[in-house]
Amino acid sequence: MHLSGDSSLFQSPSATARAFMATGKEECLACLKSLVGTCGAGVPPTYLMDEELKRHSDPSLPIEHELSLPWIVRLNHLEHRTWIEEDDMNVLWAGKTSFHRLSSLKNEKFVKLAVAEYEFRQSIYKNEMAELKSWCLKWDLSDMGFGREKTMYCYFASCASLSLPYDSYIRMTVAKGGILITVEDDFFDMEGSLNELNILTDAVRRWDAKGLSGHGKWFETFASRLLEAKWSKSGYLPSMDEYLRTGMTSIAARTLVLPASCLLKSSLSISKISRAAEYETVTKLVMLISRLSNDIQSYQKEIEDGKMNSVLLYMKENPDADIDDSIAFVRVTRQKEERVAQTCSDGWIQ
Questions:
Q1: How far apart are CA 151 and CA 142, in angstroms?
Q2: Which of 115, 168, 295, 332 lies most in the core, judged by the most C-beta atoms within 10 Å?
Q3: Could you give phi then psi for residue 2, rounded to 5 degrees?
Q4: 94 - beta bridge partners?
Q5: Contact (CB, 8 A) for 42 and 94
Q6: CB proximity list for 33: less than 8 A, separation 6 or greater
Q7: Which of 79-93, 144-158, 329-343 shows the lowest per-residue confidence on average (mean pLDDT)?
Q8: Are 248 and 291 in contact, with CB atoms under 8 Å apart?
């Protein structure tokens, strides 16, 4: 890939952004930061020349905030508060290339409505968080004596995907599942001996709770993590394909996503739920994308813990590659799977 002298690709902001997503090249990111920092009305659809950049300049734009987190991991509810509290803000909607502005009279009414909606949602979230903490205390999940305390983290992650007030039951279901998975993950990584892990995994296999016909997808998560623990403790180095077959299950995306997907649509018939095998392809893609995304973020911790992931495996299998090459390879692989998943999910459940 050949960049222009200003580190852009084809002098196009969108092409430069796509190049950064695909390769992770710091030059592309620096170019985008420079452009965002000089354009108060958002990144323009065409590349600006010097004089145009001056006219678009707005030093008050919260650049660092906008670049710190991708939209997908933000909680819209908190983003709305940022706009509400902006002193001179008369923006109804901030787009990539333009703002829609209102008169001061209309803006005041919208701000009052936004404040009331914010306070309403905040009261729901506070009640849910209190309930979740109480649930963790009841089952001693916050005081296991090992591992991470991730109650707030799991709840926030759930809210970021399911922010509407009426999705309370689904948010709580996903958050509780995430907490249990975190405790399990830490037990496998930090606390349990191999014998204890075998006993626990076998107990899950035999588990048959009231109202369930079997262990569902929880057992596959435990079994895959048991295999990873055996690899780690024995020093075994799996191939990339072997690792991904196991890792896409141990990430537990299916364990969380499938129940939430069924609960999202209350009118979903039993016949459609029973045909879940029809969606196996897109489900596996979600699992694989989750694993690759996690590996890009966690490879440094995996090095410290003596564990393996796809970023580190690529370097092992390609001795001439450095860490940036490996991250770029995993990122491109993930993006290919995302495009396939998007194609498969069009018209998934009508």
A1: 8
A2: 295
A3: -105, 115
A4: 99
A5: yes
A6: 63, 67
A7: 79-93
A8: yes
Which whole-number Å values give the CA distances from 145 to 141, 150, 173, in the listed order?
A: 9, 14, 24
Torsion from C-alpha of 116, 117, 120, 123, nearest 10 degrees? -100
Beta strands in the chain (DSSP E): 91-94, 99-101
Q: Which carries the bigger pLDDT value, residue 13 or residue 201?
A: 201
105 alpha-carbon distance from chain centroid: 39
pLDDT at 110 over 60: yes
Instruction: State the average pLDDT over residues 196-214.
Output: 76
Chain segment 305-324, per-residue pLDDT in tens:
888 899 999 999 999 999 99
pTM above the 0.85 mark?
no
Give Cα 146 to chain centroid, integer Å: 25
d(CA 296, CA 289): 11
DSSP 26: H
Evaluate whether 301 touches 275 at the Cβ level (below 8 Å).
Answer: no
Report the mean per-residue pLDDT for the chain: 78
45-54, 181-190, 265-274 — most confident range: 181-190
- Amino acid identity of residue 171, one-letter, is R
> In the numeric block, which tokens belong to residue 222?
């435990």
Query: The tokens of 198 are what?
Result: 């075998």
CA gap 63, 33 in Å, rounded:
8
Tokens for 168, please give them: 């309370």
Q: What is the C-alpha separation between 144 and 185, in angstroms, rounded?
A: 13
| Nearest residue to 8 via CA among 245, 47, 16, 170 | 16
Rounded to 5 degrees, φ, ψ at 93 are -150, 130
Tens digits of per-residue pLDDT, 118-177?
899 999 999 999 999 999 999 988 888 887 888 999 999 898 888 888 889 999 999 999
